Amino acid sequence: MERKSEQPTLLDGVAADLGGPRTRAFLDKCERLIPWDELARSVADVFARPARGGVARGGRPHWPVKLYVKCLMLQKWFGLSDPQLEEQLRDRISFRRFVGLGLSEPTPDETSLVVFRRRLREAGHARTLFDAVNRHLEKLGVILHTGTLVDASIQEAPRGRTREDGTSTRDPEASFTRKNDRTYHGYKSHIATDRRGVVKDFCFTTAKVHDSRCLDQLIRTEKRLVVADSAYMDQQREERLRRRGVCFGVVKRRVRGQAELPRWQQLWNRAWSSLRAVVEHPFAWMRNMGYRRVRYRGLARNALDFGLLAAAYNLKRSFSLRGA
Asked: Is residue 46 a contact partner of residue 2, using CB atoms and an 8 Å limit?
């Protein structure tokens, strides 16, 4: 059963114009331009299912799904952990107003957010909100269909420590990889963007999966152009794409026995590299939001987290692209 919001009080009216002007302006824009009801409906069945174990249980009414979705986006836009979000909801008037909480109402705690994400995973909604956001952007004409840019980034996970009994605290689902003579442990996010940096699709794997393994999945609907760095260089794939009528703008690297690239290949690489640079923008924004290491243990938890982060990025990016 869903918790009912309380009627606004006199205190809410007095505090209506309080809060930081920049944050209030940004959240007001989010309230106007994002179809929150539509996003909430896409995952509305999470509370229609029985609790873990398949047995329906009684308890307090849950918070509205729309409130939870707004909380998840707030976390990503402001780089907040669950405890930090609970603290900010208690402390910031603009956050409370945005999610629909009156000043005298109780506040969702961090455990309720953990349970909501778990329910999303159990209901098969690992990327439902991301897909719902992109359907909305498609309707607005924000996503371009003039080419696909692909890239991948490693998100490190703690390497853990060895316990006295010989077992390790390391995340068993994370894996190791080596890049630029450095060893990494964690996961890898693979993204496909349009030519303005909107994330069209993503794939989340452990770190040892090579960048090119997810490429065919990410470009399966592309009909014009694919741009990628040298890690994706593959003669057979290039020929397959050519037969589909797709130009494969991959940065070339030297092959065995080749002292240096010929002049035409250097010019080729320069042209594609300047275009490919746009795909770095989502990763740069995510790092600025504190996404340099994964927050959770396990592939499923971190894949959901990355999907929410990509959805939040697309929504924020769309504000500057509307009407462009």
From this structure: no
Mean pLDDT for all residues in the chain = 88
Give CA 157 to chain center in angstroms. Answer: 17
| Residue 47, φ and ψ in degrees, nearest 5 | -100, 0
From 92, 125, 158, the end of a domain falls on 125
Contact at 8 Å (CB) between 231 and 211? yes
The answer on pLDDT for 245 being more than 90 is yes
**Closest Cα to residue 191, out of 180, 181, 200, 202?**
202
Amino acid at 50: P
pLDDT over 90 (residue 6)? no
The contacts of residue 115 (CB under 8 Å, 6+ apart) are none
CA–centroid distance for 171 within its chain: 21
pLDDT tens column, 104-125: 788 999 999 999 999 999 999 9
In a domain, 1, yes or no: no
46 and 117 inside one domain: yes
What pLDDT sits at residue 12? 47
